[in-house]
Structure formats: C-alpha cells, structure tokens
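Figure 2 data, in text form.
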Amino acid sequence: MTTYRAVTSRFFDSSAMPTVAMVGGGQLARMTHQAAVALGQRLRVLAERPDDPAAQVTPEVVLGSHTDLAALREVAVGSHALTFDHEHVPTEHLEALVAEGVNVQPPPQALIYAQDKLAMRRKLAELGVPVPPFAPVESAADAVRFGDEHGWPFVLKAVRGGYDGRGVWMIGDRAEAERIVTDQLAHGVVLLAEQKVDLKRELSAMVARSPFGQAAVWPVVETVQRDGQCAVVIAPAPDLSRERATEASGLALRLAAELGVTGAMAVELFETHAGELLVNELAMRPHNSGHWGMDGAVTGQFEQHLRAVLDYPLGDTSPLAPVTVMANILGAEVAPEMSMDERLHHLFARMPQARVHLYGKGERPKRKIGHINILGDDVAEVREKAERAAHWMSHAVWTDGWDPHE
C-alpha cells in the first residue's frame, strides 16, 4: 500500500511547468530536486521512507517500493517524464508503464544494460567495445574453471543490484570460489566472473543524451576508489592525453546513441598500464563521478539530466576552473560527538571556498552522507584541501592537526 503526500497552493499553477517523476528518494533525487527548483519544474519522487534524502525536501512524495507496480503507476500519474535515481526497478514493470503511455526515460530497453551486468557485458562485446574477459557463473565449477583459465584472483560479481563494493568479491583460490559461489547461488544470486584488470587508474566519462538525439559530454574524470567505494573525483583527469580523453568521450557518446540512452550516463572505465581503456560499468542516471559539475561546470549533471529527459536543448558542460576535486563525506567508524552543524561551522571558518553538499542522512560507517567540491588551479593543492575538508566533516579531526580553538 502506498501513501501520497502532496503540497498544493492557490499561489501557483502546477501545470505551468513540467513535472518529472523520479523513482528513488536518495541523494541523487534530492540534488535533482534542487536543479528542478531552479528551472521552475516540479520533481515528484517515489521514496521508501518519509525521511529519505529527497523526501525531506520535495513537496510531492509517493511512499512505496520501486518493486511495486501500483506505486510506480501512482508516481507517474500526470508526469511529463519518469526517470530514476537507481537502476533497480523490475524491467517488466517499466515495460508495463511504457505500454500504458508513461514517458519512461531512459527507456527499459536501454536501462537493462545498467541493471544487468551480464547483459551489458554481452552487448558491449557484440558492439566491439573493449571489456575484461568474462563468463556467467552457474556453478562453483564454472568459477574454478574461470580462475584456472584467466588467472587468480578474479572478480566475482552479482549480475544485479551490487554497488559501492557490495555484490563484488575478489576470489583468490578454489576453496574461496567454491564457498562464496555455493553460498550466493543458494540465495538466488545470479553471478558473473571477470578477469582482474591490472589497472593504472579508474576513469569516468559522463554523457547526457536527449530523445531528440542531442548529446553532450563533460571532461573525463579520474575516480579514486577505496574499499570498492568512490572517495575522490578529479576533474579533468590529470595527465590524461588528449587522444585518450577523446577516445573515452567518443566511446560514451557512441554507447549512449547505440543503446538508446536518454538522460545522464556514466561510463566507468579502467585505464591499464599499457594505456588501453576497458569499460567497467554503465550507470544510466546521475552518478557520483559527476558531482563535481554542480560547482565546477557551466551545467551540472542534475540540471542536464532534467533537460535531457524532458527533451530540452542541453546545456554547456565546460569546466569553470582548471581543476575541480570532489571528495565524498563518508561516515566514520564512530560518529563524532561534535554535531554536523558545528563541523560545518568550523569548515567554513577555515575553508570559505569549500562547496558543501549534505544529504540529510544519519551517520554510519562508510555511508555517503555528503560531498565537498573545491575549485582551483593546482591538482595536488586542490585535492589535499578537498580530502582534508571531507575528513573533517566525517571525523571532526583535521588531518594536519589544526585546532579550531587555538
């Protein structure tokens, strides 16, 4: 059963500007709402709980599950487009909505390649796009065979649902393969094996595309992962040759067109030590690797996503500074006694240039509770400031020992 909460007012005409429905009430929906406000649009969200990040700030909320077709229908009523802050909606539900006339963006025939990692791998291989060697895993013997053929350790992934290091295992030997695969298959998890890539670093090429077919790319960025989770994004990626940057951007544009993507899409890439680019993942929605653009680009990903799904002309993606670094604020192992508000006060006193985005989430270990953007000229200096600021907001400790009370 779903509950609908709406705010109406005689002071505005709700039909004057478009309403976009977004499935998911997380921080991506919250920041999309901020962009919708600036454009005079309305964002309605399907959230599971009234304290979800987007539900805290969005006037129109449907409370329900993304797996409930009735809830999806309810949030879609009267909307100009239905879009997503995560990819986990059952494909059959989206196809039902399309059949009923809902404008689903991106359409389910494109979104499937962000939902299903095995379908994505097979499609990219069919298109001749470089990907790591892979194979479906339907038994422990399949996993052992893959490790023997492609080397140990190898990467085991849940085909659906994994993110931020969840649903991903680094399999070191036969015993571990047999144990983990047997357990996961017993719980109904569909699995995929991939060769471990000897990578130099991870990159992300973000693109937005409209139903009309217009597309725009942001500068290719470097993403720094810690414990399988994005911690830092550097825009543009330092020391990336013009040739490789053009290759990555061209690949993102090509995939958006060939897969029929609309809205924002992140193409996560591995750069090998030999300079080769391999596709790791696709995300067909705003993405952590694009948060830098909220302050560092003429048009950020959240506004661009709205423009794209509504088939508006797309915005300029040029950077506003030579370097922008985004650092995620991740929950500490033990939440500090100092309140978040007091931490914010001290941060602004020391770093008035820091652009802070908090998500309205409770603190728990490694949870993404916000991010900080800092713009500047020197990569090392800007990165140091962004990471120091994010650590302070997470732990209430300055990494250089600075004492705000002295």
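Caption note: The mean pLDDT is 95.
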